[in-house]
Amino acid sequence: MSKHQLTHLKELESEAIYVLREVAAQFEKPALLFSGGKDSIVVSYLAKKAFWPAKIPFVLMHIDTGHNFKEALDYRDMWVEKLGVKLIVKLVQDSIDKGRAKEEKGINASRNVLQTVTLLDAIEELKLDCCIGGARRDEEKARAKERFFSHRDDFGQWDPKNQRPELWNLFNGRKNQGENFRVFPISNWTEMDVWQYIYAEQIELPSLYFSHKRKVFVRDGVLYADEGVIIKKPTEITEERIVRFRTVGDISCTGAVESTASTLEEIIEEVAVTRTTERGTRIDDKRSEAAMEDRKKSGYF
Amino acid sequence: MDKAGYLEMDLLRFTTAGSVDDGKSTLIGRLLYDSKSIFDDQYEAIKDSSEKRGEEYVNLALLTDGLRAEREQGITIDVAYRYFATPKRKFIISDTPGHIQYTRNMVTGASTSNLAIILIDARKGVIEQTRRHSYIASLLRIPNLVVCVNKMDLVEFKEETYNSIVNDFKENVIPHLDAELVTFIPISALKGDNVVDASENMNWYKGETLLQHLENVDVIETPEKIVNRFPVQYVVRPISSEFHDYRGYAGRVAGGVFKRGDEISVFPSGLRSKIKSVDQYNIVTEEAFSGMSVTITLEDELDISRGDMITSVENAPLVSQDLSATICWLSEEPLQPNGKYALKHTSKEVRCVIKNVLSKIDINSLQENFSDKHVAVNDIARVEIKTTRPLAFDAYKTNRISGSFILIDEASNNTVAAGMIL
Hints:
The complex is a heterodimer.
Chain A: H1 8-26, E1 30-33, H2 38-51, E2 59-64, H3 70-83, E3 87-91, H4 92-97, H5 115-126, E4 130-132, E5 149-152, E6 180-183, H6 191-201, E7 212-219, E8 222-225, E9 239-245, E10 255-258, H7 264-273, H8 291-297
Parallel strand pairs in A: 1-2, 1-4, 2-3, 4-6
Antiparallel strand pairs in A: 5-6, 7-8, 7-9, 8-10, 9-10
Helix pairs in contact in A: 1-2, 6-7
Chain B: H1 3-6, E1 10-17, H2 24-34, H3 40-52, H4 68-73, E2 80-85, E3 89-95, H5 103-111, E4 115-121, H6 128-139, E5 144-150, H7 159-172, E6 181-186, H8 210-216, E7 229-231, E8 234-236, E9 248-252, E10 257-259, E11 263-267, E12 271-280, E13 283-285, E14 287-289, E15 293-298, E16 309-312, E17 318-329, E18 340-345, E19 348-362, E20 367-369, E21 380-393, E22 404-408, E23 415-421
Parallel strand pairs in B: 1-3, 1-4, 4-5, 5-6
Antiparallel strand pairs in B: 2-3, 7-16, 8-9, 9-15, 10-14, 11-12, 11-16, 12-13, 12-15, 17-21, 17-23, 18-19, 18-22, 19-20, 19-21, 22-23
């Protein structure tokens, strides 16, 4: 490659930084949605780069289902400290206690969908006009059609048929009172890009991503951590396996994979030969063919 | 993939265009499938759906049809982005639908692409929509066109059929285009001929397969050949003792190379200074070139804010409140003659009035019509615009970033037009 040509990672980085700076310039009160997963870690790292030597000019917000891995929470607090940014935590439990959200029942119960209620309430309470997320278009087919600047009506809803066209690098963040935006700076990154970038920049991650011993049980071919969050069927037996997580989210909908990959290099090797998508370990997407589309339309990330 | 390799890969953004049933989704599915970018669970899911729909083959088109209405109606209703990589390159595809009413989607997809694939059904040859798609690709200054004559399996892989389509395109379409490089490839997306692997059914074709072409084509403009442009996006002012007097101008280089010590001008004010540093977190940078997001500091304290443009002292941009442009109308609400709109150009937003509609382009005949002034959705027109404040701009043909803008309806806040400055 010529001296004045960006590698694919540098170009993706540059694009994401550009988007983050547009957010800071176009919105009055943005927040970065931080889950402790690798994608939101990368976005917050990019935010640090975008505004350096100044601090990140917006808060981080964690919509907390209460079903967290301890490793993810420890990491979250360490990372926030390191970035020197303010963290706001909003609890799904509070929404349930206030009667705003209703706990799901049954064997596949999850608080994943309930996050939408807590998020929309937080947006209203804090008067947020933009939420930055780490979603990527390669994750899921509805996301493949979403814009960088995703306009939401005053109910937080996404209308896939009425999206603003996005041309060149001109992002239209104009909105009416009460409406807001979801912005996805790493829209164009794939899972592989994220791992390569983490490797290239040597970004610290929660230990959950690396191979470790864990008590798990099998359901529908997916390994779930036995942390007392998911109600097991009598036939589901807990055993110790060598696993790692490809995505890190709420315990009730994050599956592990058997893996001995304990370094970033080994993970990249593993991702390169893996034949299933990382969302293959997410039960929230398995509910129906249009599961993600439906959640987005009702205000999900 | 070895580590050194993937850290050195570059990125190609391309768009695909064709009319309904030209096999676009199938082609993309084929590229993803044959380059092993489709995962087992995705493949299983579409295999299931295909069986449910009673289809004979695994319908690769289902991979790109993301929304419920699309799956039900078997159409693509919006721009979808797809990703795949080979050891040589990473690719971003903007998949745009071919329906007449969705010209705006193609303009959207084309605006960020460096290459366009135009699909032609070998049974139908060059049709109206072929002209339209090729013209839009050329209007948006996509430097490389790849014309894929698809469904060759349905014309018995005949060389004569392919040649007559190629000749028709060369004689009747290319003269209307600005495209720098046009490549022709006979393929069958359904059967896989010449998509990734060379076709055994078309030994008469000696050129590259589509994927080989995508991997090898040189698409990146050399930054040195473009004039220096740096739209200021955000002013970085840390409030800390360590960086007490720091005032940096953050932005993404829109052309050329900026180096420490370079003399620069700032527009629209025309003030001059010298570059003190080119900053990036964690890295010592001496220079920044096209595409890089950096923060520039200057030797002098000037009044610079978002929307200003830093350039080299030579090759100044045009600074004016009057501009003429080709616009593509994107909104269901037609253009209001003498209507006022917000105009977004690089990082600057101003108000403007559309003073005059000069002509409309009939994108089927590619003729200019000077009498019809009604501009509605999917129309392409030449207009004269006056802005409330001066803009520093270039012609779109010399710079896709400093030469482009969008118009926004101030009541609905919708993006209503894409503009290319003449």
